[in-house]
Amino acid sequence: MDYQKVLTELEDLVLETYSLWDHNRIGFQWRHYTWNHTKRVRAMGMELGRKAGGDVKKLELAGTLHDITKKYDGEILTDEEGKRVTSSQGFWLNEKLKPTQQNVVTELYDRYDLYDTVHHDSGAVITEKILVDFGFDTDFVEAVRSIVFAHLKPINITDDDFKILYKNIENQILYDADTMDPNIGYTAFFRNVHIHAHFAIQRNGKFELQGYVEGLPKFVDSKDSFVDHLLTDVAKEVAANRQTRSRNLVTEINQELENLEVNRQYGLLGVIEYFVSEVEDPDFAYQLNYLQNEWIPQRQKRLTADNLSSAKRDDAQAAIDRVTTFTNDLEAEYKGFI
């Protein structure tokens, strides 16, 4: 088997599957988010696997396929009292959105009537069928299927069931990676900016920069509990370091409010405003690349051309340096390194 060729074909299949729905945004998910999230979770899972002695190939395939049925999820269901409807295991239930086009994934979804399942369950079924067709051996397929199934942890899980579901380190690792990406670190900050901006514009017609920035410390504090609930020590260490960096970041951003003129042009405040310049379908990979290869060089060039006082020039350079550090760390998180 040519593993790299198979991996490329699986990536193409996931991307093709995500394109089969016409809708762009549902709740906290948007078109580009799902694939970027998949790549980040895969990268982090593989890096955690290397550190914790997990099977990196299993984690690579499980990371690639773990959200393959995620696009079926519509709005969260609520009851007559407005409370979220949950499954017997405590998972929030979503309305199901049917794709407007078909491929092998949607055909399998229909064949096995997966409409009453949560996406970790349906994704595990699809993963098993696809990997069998690619010729992976039975034990390997079962291991990857189990990892995908375990990337969501039941709220009402018993101790005995927990020991069964998470007996393998890879199952713990993918759960940790999938939990961390949207909740802890700079990737979570990126997601929060876009969620906040989207709903603020829907409600009020505009995004209030200062109000958002002043609320960031509370946002970071709210994520401490996620660190405690991770399953592996290596993930807890990574998450704790991310929380420390995030606290330092939001402190810097709030300090930038003291010099709005400079920092909206050259600093982290300007980065936030750049992020929210695209609220309907922001592309993490594109925006990160633009910051590193266009935004920062443009500001550096502008700095040499602008007629600034010595003090303002120093402030502007310090602001650019903060953005450079931020984007370097954001890229490192994207690749699963920190």
Question: In words, what does this structure look like?
Answer:
There is one protein chain. The protein is mainly α. The protein has two domains: 3-179, Hypothetical protein af1432; 186-334, no CATH class. 67% of the residues lie in helices and 3% in strands. A two-stranded antiparallel ribbon has the order 1-2. Strands 3-4 form a two-stranded antiparallel sheet. The protein is globular, with a radius of gyration of 21 Å. The mean pLDDT is 96.
Would you kindly provide a brief summary of this structure?
This protein has helices spanning 3-18, 31-52, 56-65, 104-111, 119-133, 138-149, 159-165, 169-183, 186-204, 209-214, 216-221, 224-228, 233-256, 260-266, 268-275, 284-305, 310-334, and strands at residues 25-26, 29-30, 73-76, 94-96.
Main attributes of the structure:
single chain, two-stranded antiparallel ribbon, mainly alpha, globular, 17 helices, Hypothetical protein af1432, 338 residues
Secondary-structure topology with pairs:
Elements: H1 3-18, E1 25-26, E2 29-30, H2 31-52, H3 56-65, E3 73-76, E4 94-96, H4 104-111, H5 119-133, H6 138-149, H7 159-165, H8 169-183, H9 186-204, H10 209-214, H11 216-221, H12 224-228, H13 233-256, H14 260-266, H15 268-275, H16 284-305, H17 310-334
Antiparallel strand pairs: 1-2, 3-4
